[in-house]
Design a protein that fits this description.
By secondary structure, the protein is α+β, with helices and mostly antiparallel strands. It has helices at about 1-35, 45-70, 75-100, 110-185, 190-210, 215-230, 260-270, 305, 310-325, and strands spanning about 215, 240-245, 255, 275-285, 290-295, 330-335, 340-345. The chain is rod-shaped.
Length: about 350
Amino acid sequence: MNSHFNKTYALDIMINVIVLLIVFILPEIIFNTAMEQRHQKPQHIAVYIHAIIYLSVFYLNYFLLVDKLLFRKKVLAYIATALLLSVVMVVLTPILHQITGSQPPRHIQKPENIFILSMMLRDFAMMILTIGLSVALKLGLRWNKIENLNKQMISEQKEMELTNLKSQLNPHFLFNTLNNIYALIAINPDKAQDAIHRLSKMLRYMLYENDKEVPLEEELQFLQNFIELMKLRLNKENRLIVNMPKSGTKGLTIAPLLFISLIENAFKYGINGSNPSEISIDIKVDNATLKCRVANSLFPKTDSDNKNSGIGITNMRRRLALLYSGRHEYKSGCINNQYVAELAIDLKLNKQI
């Protein structure tokens, strides 16, 4: 946020310098040069009186009237005050000329009253243009500040939502894994002890790998550990096929814990203790695109088993939408008595150089 405000502050200064040097002072210098080329005595005091008047109108409006009235939605009061300021400055201009003994150049012979009136109308028009320019610049800078704040708020909201999704994901994962270990205790205490040791390693990864992106190798190792943990509950009726990439992962990063829900569901819904079942997990990297295909046998679950189902997949899809918008594809459905889920993520933009 500070960088945004620093850029806006620098832009504000630059605009004011440009206004000071070009919009007001430069035309007056050019006018003086033209007067000298005509062998006429330039009216330096008259020139700078006009410059001071215009700058006063510009900055009174820029720093005071716009903030105090226009931005507070007091439009009628702002218009009335701006017009009054213009009239006061128009009346003040000839008075200053008289006090300083200077007169603006006069090229066309006109009656005195008509000349004075035309000069006042010209000055009034210039005051209105000056105020309009001041308002335009102020609105532009304000719009820029609002845009930066909106971007910051969207970014912070996105971070909060991702944090919330991960906080939902971790307990969901832990709940299912502990249930698996609980079932294993009665079957084989030694394997249950080994499972707890593996779980502690996985929880350490989940607790300390909180970055937006982690090396793909680490995430794949985490998935391998999880699969090894789940294998402890399989029997001879269950078949597990796992293919992990051997190469092509160097320099690639990915958001942690994205694929875990797919594999979790495969073990939850694809394994039956008394019937033959199969789970196939195929993960590969193709031209910096990570592709994961998980297929499992489909066994109906009771209402109590389905009570908390869908949380992991819902969170995964939401995280994908936030982190990989336009860079991922997810589809799932039943094919030949199997439930198949396929997820592809383009990791090119994440590739470390």
